[in-house]
Amino acid sequence: MNRYILRYRGQGAKPKEDVEMIRSLPETTIFDETSRMLLVEAPEEVLRTALKSLTNWVMTEERFIPMPDPPRPKTRHKTVDGNSES
Fold first, then answer.
1. Alpha helix (H) ranges present in the chain?
2. Mind listing the pLDDT tens digit for each residue in 22-41?
3. How many domains does the chain fold into?
């Protein structure tokens, strides 16, 4: 099962009735929410069907973008006189 971001595009905060309806869908779990978005795990067709009856909602599949490993710091060696050398 995939995770989806549901974003409310209407005026103000997302309607509580809409959130409760989404929460009641079979095999659906809400993992996180903000005033205008929900992070939901559910079957795609269940969500698509439900959103047809709700206005101002947009559904996007959650995507992961791997971050590159940060560069390793270069070690500096001290010389005999105490100064650093690259």
1. 16-23, 44-52
2. 999 999 999 999 999 999 99
3. 1
